[in-house]
Amino acid sequence: MIELMLSTALVLFILAIAIALYRIIRGPSIPDRVIALDMIVVNMISGIAVISVLLKTKAFLEVILVLGILAFISTIALSKFIERGVIIERRRNR
After folding, report:
1. Is the Cα dihedral 63, 65, 66, 70 positive or negative?
2. DSSP code of 60?
3. How far apart are alpha carbons 47 and 33 in whole angstroms?
4. What is the pLDDT of residues 32-81, one digit of tens each?
5. Backbone phi, psi, residue 88, to 5°
6. b/e string for 67-89 if b means 16 or more Cβ within 10 A?
7. How far is the C-alpha of 5 from the C-alpha of 15, rounded, in Å?
8. C-alpha to C-alpha distance for 22 and 27, rounded to whole angstroms
């Protein structure tokens, strides 16, 4: 029974990723695309966790951690780029 529920959850995560991919392609603005990209990564993390439970292994936990860190950093960088037009400001004293 638990395998059926986990498989259903995995299919729903794949469906959510497909919907977010559509939002990335057809998004009306760049912030919508950034949020959709973040949503894809969160659903990928959840899908990998479900696969890890289905396979009864802990091998994918490091992958989940790395994906979470990269998603956080990329979301912050893209939002700073949208806000300011530059990610790292360099102030020159001349």
Report:
1. positive
2. T
3. 21
4. 999 999 999 999 999 999 999 999 999 999 999 999 999 999 988 888 88
5. -120, 120
6. beeebeeeeeebbeeeeeeeeee
7. 15
8. 8
The stretches of 1-94 forming alpha helices (DSSP H) are 2-26, 30-55, 61-84
| Whole-angstrom distance, CA of residue 61 vs CA of residue 43 | 15
Residue pLDDT, tens place only, 47-59: 999 999 999 999 9
Confidence category of residue 87, pLDDT binned at 50, 70, 90: low
pLDDT at residue 89 above 80? no
Q: Which of 68, 27, 28, 20 is nearest to 46 (CA)?
A: 68
- As a whole number of angstroms, the distance between CA 77 and CA 18 comes to 24
